[in-house]
Amino acid sequence: MPIMALTELMRILRDCAGQDESVDFEGDIADVPFEELGYDSLALLQAAGMAEREHNVRLEDEAVATATTPRELLATINQSMAVESL
Amino acid sequence: MVVRTAMAEAAGLDRGVPGATAPVVTGIGVAAPNGLGTGPWWRATLAGERAIAPITRFNADSYPARMAGEVRDFDPSEHLPSRLIPQTDHMTRLALAASAEAFADAGVDTSALPEYAAGVVTSASAGGFEFGQRELQALWSKGSRHVSAYQSFAWFYAVNTGQISIRHGLRGPSGVLVTGEAGGLDAVAQARRRLRGDAELMLTGGVDGSLCPWGWTALLSSGRLSTSDDPEHAYLPFSADARGHVVGEGGALLVLEAPESARARGARAYGALSGYAATFDPAPGAGGEPGLRYAIEQALDEADVTPDQVGVVFADACGVPDDDRAEADAISGVFGSRGVPVTAPKTLTGRLCAGGASLDLAAALLSVHEGVLPPTADVGRQAEGICLDLVTGTPRYGRVDVALVLARGQGGFNAAAVVRAADL
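Structure tokens for the assembled complex are given below, as produced in the milestone run.
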């Protein structure tokens, strides 16, 4: 079963929406709210779109919108990837 | 966000307050084809450095017009945080750079301003068309999942006001004006209007541009673009060889505030916006004189200055023979034949759509501040019936108390603004 790692998600976010210069992306950020990381809802939509294209999955916009941290968004993406691979 | 027209002005509903209460400009930010930043642009302008050249932003070989004034060597990562780069069109990036420069120049720390004390009013013509074209092409060629989420606002004509407001935390009265090339003055007048209300300080002006096939096709539809491939002869306003104009990108953003607030914080003022008027031309076929002369007279009247006090006129300089003659008639009608120095530094940059008149306003402010008239590129022999004292070749030095800036949008929008030296 394909799994996306946190490092890949953060790479996608950086590619799609840049990186807040005041945030340490090397630290433990899986549970830091997106708001504190400098990513708004459009940034998440943009990142979800790239994850969809790179992994050929479909993500529900609502599921993406309810994710408030990288860990939650990662769970949503990995769940979709698992379903697609069935 | 509200789109304003010049209608209130035309209806005479907005009489200004002349004299000491006229708002002052305390900061200038510039993005121009012949210089990024106020200093480099002003030096290039006084030196008569022309930035009109073949288009490089896209392959324009198959288009009838192929010259433009591009802002080159702009590295967005030097001016913007990385988070803003994926969500901004080129012209919005230029506007964000110019807004930061204007605030720094004014010595204003925007984070220290009360939340609703400062607003933004910009002018626009198209929006982020280069960004928009790329995303529309992605939609057609790859499908909706390939369209950037930022397309939702990046293409929009109000985007510069929004991004500047967010970047600097300016939550006061804001808006955007779309009045063609007159917008660069109309926006500043709207900002002035806001200062009469609750706003203490306004960031205003226009930085514009849509140098991409989509934007270019729209511009070509005016039928007024020069099809010459010779950078030195493509844009010759008032000339016997006038053949349309060249379009460019860029503009200027200004910090506008009440003189008492500028004085209170010990700011330096480039000058005061002491008069402004906007008029419409008569409907096509209705006959009668175009509205530009009336706009000039109204603006001078509001500023409480007589024509002989005006030291320079920054012309709209359309480069289309009939429009040139109409403007020359309006200027000569007010000032007399060769009655006032006239200049058009936009001959060095091309017409910058809704940003051009704001850049002229910046030049007018520096003229009164420094006592120098920037030159027009050499246009050769003036067209028959046009008799202007055109400042060409080199700058003219000497005291300038009052400068007049003219701008016209296609379809009959006229605007005139008067700036005076200001002692705080």
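The domain at 2-264 of chain B is CATH 3.40.47.10 (Peroxisomal Thiolase; Chain A, domain 1). Chain B touches chain A through 13 residues (CB under 8 Å). Further analysis is deferred to the final report.
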